[in-house]
């Protein structure tokens, strides 16, 4: 089932990549012909979309590889790394777009508003269609979600270019072209920053968003038979695969009882927090005072 879903995502990403790459060429030529910074900027944004989709496609295929001696956790981080590169590229491009837009605000240049209008309208249809097509896959995969955000940002920026073209055609005020370019840059920065921050957090093995270690600790110690928890660590193998390691303090119980406790704790972590991979060690000891995630329980 998972293999079929992965193949379907790969097919969608491949088609989206080809369509976007072809449109980049058309939009760049149109932007240079019309002397529109907004169109040229959007063409480069679409080019980063092509790279984003290519990276997402490569990551999806790499993630299929099974775990081995060299990669005992498998290749789940490939998608996170792709998301980091994608979002980092967008942030860098935004800086250039800001600079060029400010320069043109000081010295406005003539543009062909008709070309802007037609090309931006086509860009909106293409980007909106790809965003809708990959929307469901983006909910579960940070890698695909970063690519979808690229496309969504371009769809929104295309609307801005259409508006600028109409305003220029109606009033002849050329500053709308660089002004919309600045809005596009802000939109790119906003859409990419959240993905970049989440990717960095996962690469640094930070606690996944939406999980409170103190709350997890309290939930575990509420399990009958668990006297305390310490050395608790929670991280993400990938955007949708969470892992946990912890030491659980128990009383003088037989080995069979610890097996039953482990099953209950794992069920709790899976059902309430979506944690699929756990490494748990049982101890007959008191909580270390220096451990911030050690919470003595009340069970006897």
Assembly category: single chain
At CATH level 2, the architecture of the largest domain is Up-down Bundle
The tally of helices reads 9
Count of the separate structural domains: 2
CATH homology superfamily name of the largest domain:
Cation efflux protein transmembrane domain
The computed structural class is: mainly alpha
Q: What is the strand tally?
A: 3
What are the segments in which pLDDT stays under 50 over at least 5 consecutive residues? none
- Order of strands, main sheet, comes to 1-2-3
Order of helices and strands: HHHHHHHHEEHE
Overall shape: it is elongated
Biggest beta sheet attributes? 3 strands, mixed
Q: Quote the average pLDDT.
A: 78
The gyration radius over C-alpha positions equals 25 Å
CATH top-level class of the largest domain? Mainly Alpha
**First-to-last CA distance:** 44 Å
Specify the helix fraction band. Answer: 55-70%
Please indicate the percent range of residues in DSSP E strands (runs of 2 or more). 5-15%
**The CATH topology of the largest domain:** Alpha-lytic protease prodomain-like
Q: What is the compact description of this entry?
A:
With 300 residues, this protein is mainly α.
């Amino acid at each position: 089932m998972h293999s079929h879903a992965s193949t379907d995502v790969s097919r969608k990403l491949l088609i989206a990549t080809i369509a976007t790459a072809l449109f980049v060429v058309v939009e760049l030529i149109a932007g240079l012909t019309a002397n529109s910074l907004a169109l040229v900027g959007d063409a480069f944004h679409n080019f980063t979309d092509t790279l984003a989709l290519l990276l997402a496609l490569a990551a999806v295929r790499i993630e299929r590889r099974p775990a081995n001696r060299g990669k005992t956790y498998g290749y789940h981080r490939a998608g996170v790394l792709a998301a980091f590169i994608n979002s980092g590229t967008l942030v860098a491009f935004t800086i250039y777009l800001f600079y060029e837009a400010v320069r043109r605000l000081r010295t406005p240049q003539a543009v062909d508003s008709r070309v802007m209008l037609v090309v931006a309208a086509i860009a909106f249809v293409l980007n909106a269609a790809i965003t809708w097509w990959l929307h469901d896959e983006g909910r579960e995969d940070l890698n695909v979600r970063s690519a979808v955000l690229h496309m969504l940002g371009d769809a929104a920026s295309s609307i801005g270019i259409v508006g600028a073209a109409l305003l220029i055609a109606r009033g002849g005020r050329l500053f709308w072209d660089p002004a919309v370019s600045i809005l596009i840059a802000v939109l790119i920065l906003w859409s990419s920053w959240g993905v970049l921050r989440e990717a960095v957090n996962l690469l640094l093995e930070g606690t996944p968003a939406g999980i409170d270690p103190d709350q997890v600790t309290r939930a575990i110690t509420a399990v009958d038979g668990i006297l305390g928890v310490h050395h608790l660590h929670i991280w993400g193998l990938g955007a949708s695969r969470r892992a946990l390691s912890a030491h659980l303090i128990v009383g003088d119980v037989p080995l069979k009882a610890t097996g039953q406790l482990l099953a209950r704790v794992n069920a709790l972590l899976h059902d309430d927090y979506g944690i699929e991979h756990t490494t748990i060690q049982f101890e007959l000891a008191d909580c270390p005072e220096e451990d911030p995630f050690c919470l003595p329980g009340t069970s006897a």
